[in-house]
């Protein structure tokens, strides 16, 4: 209708339509405005590409999302921390930690600073894989870069340590949280209480509850 009236849709119009279709998971329909805008010489921006990558990842089509990332780079548009984090998340959930680490490596080479979300996704995946020491290393890397881990990040680590019966190590992490001014929440305490009960460490349990 816009074109019939002599108005050419711009990047904002196309991106809005694309975003709406992607949110509704209408990926086939979303491809039409995406390719149409390119055909008309309108260059998709980082937001346009990231929107499409996000929708593809949510649909579980990670390989297709990686193809779009490749197209994006060929067009001279550099992905940002959000774009990469969106890709890292499904790779981690599928247990493809090494592939996720490759993306983190690419980010580092490109000088893109990882944020708390990206770090937390990686920590969660490593913990699920039982790679606790590697996850602890990432927490250390976060703090060195001046990025404060959030309570959820620490809870992920505490949970896997307690499950692996490394309760003393989990307690050290709780102390670290407190020193950093991060208040343990109900999830933190419940995880510790459960682990201490299983160990029959009733004195420590009493101290925790007082």
From TrEMBL:
- Give the superkingdom in one word: Eukaryota
Q: Where are the PPR repeats?
A: 10-44, 45-79, 80-114, 115-149, 150-184
**UniProt keyword annotation of Glycoprotein present:** no
PROSITE patterns linked = PPR (PS51375)
Keywords on this record? Repeat
Pfam families assigned to the protein according to its UniProt record, in alphabetical order: PPR_1, PPR_2
User: Is Repeat tagged as a keyword?
Assistant: yes
Full protein name = Pentatricopeptide repeat-containing protein
Q: What is the lineage of its organism?
A: Eukaryota, Viridiplantae, Streptophyta, Embryophyta, Tracheophyta
């Amino acid at each position: 209708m816009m074109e019939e009236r002599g108005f050419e849709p711009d990047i904002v119009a196309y991106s809005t339509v694309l975003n709406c279709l992607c949110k509704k998971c209408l990926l086939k329909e979303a491809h039409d405005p995406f390719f149409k805008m390119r055909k008309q010489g309108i260059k998709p921006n980082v937001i346009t590409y990231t929107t499409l990558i996000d929708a593809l990842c949510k649909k579980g089509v990670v390989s297709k999302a990686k193809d779009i990332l490749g197209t994006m780079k060929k067009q001279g548009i550099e992905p940002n921390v959000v774009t990469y984090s969106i890709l890292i998340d499904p790779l981690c959930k599928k247990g493809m930690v090494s592939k996720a680490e490759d993306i983190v490596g690419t980010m580092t080479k490109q000088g893109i600073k990882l944020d708390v979300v990206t770090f937390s996704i990686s920590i969660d995946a490593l913990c699920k894989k039982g790679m606790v020491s590697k996850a602890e290393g990432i927490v250390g890397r976060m703090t060195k870069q001046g990025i404060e881990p959030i309570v959820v990040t620490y809870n992920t680590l505490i949970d896997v340590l307690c499950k692996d019966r490394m309760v003393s190590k989990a307690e050290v992490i709780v102390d670290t949280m407190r020193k950093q001014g991060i208040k343990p929440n109900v999830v933190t305490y419940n995880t510790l209480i459960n682990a201490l009960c299983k160990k029959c460490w009733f004195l420590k349990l009493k101290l925790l509850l007082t």
